[in-house]
Design a protein that fits this description.
Blueprint: E1 19-20, E2 23-24, E3 26-27, H1 38-50, H2 60-80, E4 88-91, H3 94-106, E5 114-118, H4 127-136, E6 139-143, E7 145-146, E8 151-152, H5 154-160, E9 165-171, H6 183-192, E10 196-200, H7 212-215, E11 219-223, E12 233-237, H8 239-244, H9 264-284, H10 300-304, H11 311-338, E13 344-347, E14 361-366, H12 371-380, E15 383-384, E16 386-388, H13 393-398, E17 407-411, H14 418-434
Parallel strand pairs: 3-15, 5-6, 5-9, 9-10, 10-11
Antiparallel strand pairs: 1-2, 4-12, 7-8, 11-12, 13-14, 14-17, 16-17
Helix pairs in contact: 1-9, 2-9, 3-4, 9-11, 11-14
């Protein structure tokens, strides 16, 4: 297979041709939502043109719509390594789906039960469980983090677990600082005390192979708009659990979790996004010889890339492996460059030798520059980046940055080029040199 080259994929993304003041725009805002390839745009438009109908009708457009939605369930099942497309549920977004699941789980919680959450996580993987526990009279326990590296303190996880633990909720990767958590190990420890495990894979999904069987999770959620698709949420759960949990639904609805009329056009676009990722496997695919799920240990990605998996699932694993390898090179280049800029602080894993422990998402602050001012200066230079806490509110509070505007988040994905990285580093160095008060 040829070496991964984002230049061969970028023409598929119309947004990446945008220019500002005569220069290409650099999109480092992917953690808030990635750009989409043309096939996703075409799939959404094509749905409206050829299949725009509600479900289960006797007529042609409804049948076409049903076929697209059915195939999208199968595609996302392949992306996640699910046992069946029936385990995949679409919804408005991860937050809404997690609230729906938390209400169902909350109905089987009892006073004295305990739910464990992480201080590293997005509030969408904290708030729903806090609310469900409060409604049931259950207790919330928390996994602490090491503020120096923004990694989870697994000792505090052990201290939080007990025979009263009913659920452990953890993120696969931090949307703010990029840390990849040892989710397989967290799930193992949760199961050791008889608890269910819920994984928020929203931020991790565009960066590496997903395999719900390898990590052993009971539930997982992600969002298509973070992996080059439309604004659609995805919930996966083990079939026996999804079927057994009580859910808030109207009486005729055939599905516990897909309530009301779904976003069929967005689901069509999600199917196209998964097919795009599979094409990357065709063009640049890499595998991990000698690995299998049983040997995966804490590296769920290694387990996912088992040799000999055929069809779309195998293509997706190969593609995500190629993305993962390329993005580690990007991370090493970014970290080496950021560390050389005076007054700039990296919050999270900053060692270029530990890129396997992070996604190419970097939270930074720069002396003399309020985060919003720095984001505005980058925007003026044609570089799109977010500032704030990105709903990782507890993490930013623990870092002591909530009162000063949070951080600036620099988020790369596989369409980010080395030239764009170098342009970012040069711009930050210039800003550090002149300071916010100088022209």
């Amino acid at each position: 297979m040829p070496a991964f080259d984002p230049a061969l994929l970028r023409p598929q993304f119309p947004a990446l041709s945008a220019r500002q003041d005569g220069r290409p725009v650099v999109f480092l805002d992917g953690p808030g939502g990635t750009q989409v390839p043309q096939r996703v745009i075409d799939a959404v438009a094509g749905y409206y043109r050829d299949a725009n109908a509600n479900a289960h009708g006797a007529f042609a457009t409804s049948k076409r719509s049903d076929a697209i939605v059915e195939e999208a369930h199968a595609a996302v099942a392949d992306l996640l390594g699910a046992a069946s497309p029936a385990e995949v549920k679409f919804g408005q977004n991860m937050t809404s789906l997690t609230f729906a699941l938390s209400r169902g789980i909350g109905r089987v919680l009892r006073p004295g039960d305990e739910v464990v959450i992480s201080r590293l996580d997005h509030e969408a993987n904290r708030g729903p469980w806090i609310a469900a526990a409060a409604d049931a009279g259950a207790t919330i326990r928390e996994i602490a983090l090491d503020p120096a590296t923004c990694t989870l303190d697994l000792g505090s996880l052990d201290a939080a677990l007990s025979e009263r633990t009913r659920l452990v909720a953890v993120g696969w990767a931090s949307n703010a600082v990029g840390t990849i958590n040892p989710v397989a190990e967290v799930v193992r420890r949760a199961h050791a005390v008889g608890a269910w495990a819920f994984v928020d894979a929203v931020h991790y999904a565009p960066h590496g192979p997903l395999d719900v069987a390898a990590i052993g999770a009971d539930f997982l959620a992600c969002s298509a708009y973070k992996f080059f698709g439309p604004h659609v949420g995805v919930l996966w759960g083990r079939a026996e659990l999804l079927d057994s949990l009580p859910a808030y639904k109207v009486r005729p609805a055939s599905d516990h979790w897909e309530t009301g009329t779904q976003n069929h056009e967005g689901i069509a676009g999600t199917l196209a996004a998964v097919e795009y990722l599979a094409e990357i496997g065709d063009r640049f695919g890499v595998s991990a010889p000698g690995t299998d799920r049983a040997a995966a240990g804490n590296d769920a990605g290694a387990g996912a890339a088992a040799v000999g998996i055929a069809g779309r699932r195998g293509r997706l694993l190969a593609g995500m492996r190629a993305i993962e390898a390329y993005e580690r090179e990007v991370s090493a280049r970014v970290l080496a460059g950021l560390s050389a800029i005076p007054g700039l602080a990296i919050h999270g894993l900053a060692d270029p030798g530990r890129t396997s422990g992070r996604t190419p998402t970097f939270a930074v602050t720069m002396a003399g520059w309020p985060p919003r001012r720095l984001a505005e200066a980058l925007a003026a230079a044609g570089i799109n980046a977010w500032d704030g806490d990105f709903y990782a509110t507890t993490l930013v509070e623990d870092l002591g940055l909530a009162g000063s505007g949070g951080v600036v988040r620099l988020g790369m994905v596989h369409y980010t080029t080395f030239d764009e990285v170098d342009r970012l580093l040069e711009t930050l160095a210039e800003l550090a040199d002149r300071g916010p008060g100088r022209p």
